[in-house]
Amino acid sequence: MSEAKKYPAPVTNPETAAFWDSAKQGKFMIKRCTACGEAHYFPRSICPFCYSDKTVWEESSGEGTIYTYSLMRKSPTGPYAIGYVTLKEGPSVQTNFVDCDLEKLKIGQKVKVVFKPTDGAPLPFFTPV
Amino acid sequence: MTIKGKAYIAGIYEHPTRHAPDKSTAQLHAEVAKGAIEDAGLSKDDIDGYFCAGDAPGGAWPMVDYLGLNTKKLRHVDSTETGGCSYIIHLGHAAEAIAAGKCSIALITLAGKPRTGVMPPRAAGAEVDFESAYGATTHNAYGMCAMRHMHDYGTTSEQLAWIKVAASHHAQYNPHAMLKDVVTVEDVLNSPMISDPLHRMDCCVVSDGGGALIVTTPEIAKSLKKPLVKLIGHGEAMKGPRGGKDLDLTYSAGVWSGPRAFEEAGITPKDIKYASIYDSFTITVLMQLEDLGFCKKGEGGKFVADGNLISGVGKLPFNTDGGGLCSNHPVNRGGMTKIIEAVRQLRGEAHPKVQVKNCDVAIAHGTGGLLGVRHAASTAILERV
Fold first, then answer.
1. CB A72 to CB B195 under 8 A?
2. Stretch B213-240: mean pLDDT, rounded?
3. What one-character-per-residue DSSP string does B138-180 give?
4. To which H or E segment does residue B230 belong?
5. CA atoms within a 13 Å half-sphere pointing along the CA-CB vector of B362
6. % of residues, chain A, pLDDT over 90
7. Is B35 helix (H, G, I), strand (E, B) or coil?
8. Rounded-to-integer distance, Cα B46 and Cα B75, Å
9. A40 CB near a chain B CB, below 8 Å?
10. Which residues contact B330 (CB under 8 A, 6 or more apart)?
11. Band of pLDDT at residue B164, cut at 50, 70 and 90
12. For the whole prediction, is pTM greater than 0.90?
């Protein structure tokens, strides 16, 4: 079922276009503020912590751990698991877990990013390491 | 400045319907407006403040026109949209407007048809490209909170089930409740898993319907015939993942709205005789009880167990109408009915089997949006005069 699932293409906008351009090259980008040093996700131009406009793109390792998840048992496209991953770089990101046995997900489990195609830029998902 | 004691709830009305295939959404708004105005003993032409949220077709100005409100008199409008808690926020804003002299008789309406009509889509936020594909719904967004709460604090499905059990004990006395059968912890645990770790019976009902309030000055309230109920404290707050830093889904914005309301009221959770707590899911109740200070963070499971929320049995009677878990959840928004049942308790108008004795102070608290993603919260503390 999950192989057949169609994901919507991101609409993108001037503030986030670089994220999706990088995604097309298989890179998972976060933003970091050079004024306060904090990383954040999803990407903004103005740092949400110190309001500096000195934010820069940074490639994430794409590695992290499951903060939490919930397995939706039924949906028109079959079961799926939503959750948050806390990246090695710090920020937690909302995602779905894919390419795995959804019954065996655990908080604290190590995961890494994988991209899935859409009609536009690919979307980031996570899968157990 | 404070709104303490400066506004009274003089009219309440909860639509009895839970299934309204033959009515329009605007019609339901009109029916609840009429009900609340009549409950207060006023006329629609007395209304000089109108409050509605995203469920009102077209927003405030089409509703004001449709409802036939007196536009020569109407001088204050507020269409703050914060999901299910919008109406608790409206109550606070109405009190602010009344205290400032911007209106004297405010009408707040909620109505809609999630069962038999089309729900208007919510406008996308800045996060849309980074979240919409992942299918966050109410079930799994609250499931994520419950999963982490269990991980961090050892909360169990049995403890969550007690919240539904308590609601069902109350709903058996509500002739309008959708689910009137008393259920057991085992019933909840044996109901199908919807989105881990939430079972079907951890989830609220889906219902058509609505409700309305009349909020007014102390002077006007005292000139009317209903028992007097005044607002003595109010708080509102918002919370989201905030760039993903230090994500913690085990608490809600109630940790901020609650203390603001208690501070204004000059009381503590120990003084509360009855609690209306938004129960979109069992976990919603448990987290909010902790956040409001009825118990310590992480101890909500123990607090709700063994019937502690059942009127006449436990220490904190809650949602004596059966709440969203058993009675209704008009427009998928629980804030309005939370205020209405709190007012019934303070008036002594709750069902005799669930009426709290000497109920002089009550709380109505709710959230809007998704606790597991981003949300608002609002707290109102009400006192019988």
1. yes
2. 98
3. HHHHHHHHHHHHHHHH---HHHHHHHHHHHHHHHTT-TT-S--
4. strand B229-239
5. 32
6. 94
7. helix
8. 11
9. yes
10. B15, B110, B111, B112, B207, B208, B209, B210, B211, B336, B337
11. very high
12. yes
| Torsion over CA: B41, B236, B154, A70 (sign) | positive
pLDDT tens across A55-84, in order?
A: 999 999 999 999 999 999 999 999 999 999
3-state secondary structure of A40: strand
Instruction: Determine the Cα–Cα distance for residues B26 and B39; give it in Å rounded to an integer.
Output: 20
Q: Is A49 on the interface with B (CB under 8 A)?
A: yes
pLDDT at A2: 45
pLDDT at A4 over 80: no
Mean pLDDT confidence for B161-178:
98
CB A8 within 8 A of CB A118: yes
Provide the b/e sequence for B118-150 (b: ≥16 CB within 10 Å).
eeeeeeeeeeebbbbbbbbbbbbbbbbbbbbbb
Which of chain A's residues have a Cβ under 8 Å away from the Cβ of B249? 67-68, 84
For testing contact with chain B, the best of A94, A96, A102, A104 (most B CBs within 10 A)? A94
Query: How would residue B42 be classed by pLDDT, with cut points 50, 70 and 90?
Result: very high
Query: Does residue A89 contact residue A95 with C-beta atoms inside 8 Å?
Result: no
Token reading at B278: 């938004």
- For residue A3, what pLDDT band results from cuts at 50, 70 and 90? low
B147 contact A CB<8A: yes
Q: Contact at 8 Å (CB) between B199 and B189?
A: yes
Are A68 and B193 a contacting pair at CB < 8 A? no
Distance CA A83, CA B195 (A): 12
Dihedral pair phi/psi, residue B367, rounded to 5°: -125, 165
Average pLDDT over residues B268-283: 98
What confidence score (pLDDT) does residue A1 get? Answer: 44
Question: Which DSSP string corresponds to B278-336?
Answer: --SBHHHHHHHHHHHTSS-TT-HHHHHGGGTTSTTTSSS-B-TT-HHHHT--BTT--HH
Interchain contact, A48 vs B136, CB within 8 Å: no
Q: CA B302 to CA B289: how far, in whole Å? A: 11
**B241 preceded by cis ω (within 30°)?**
no
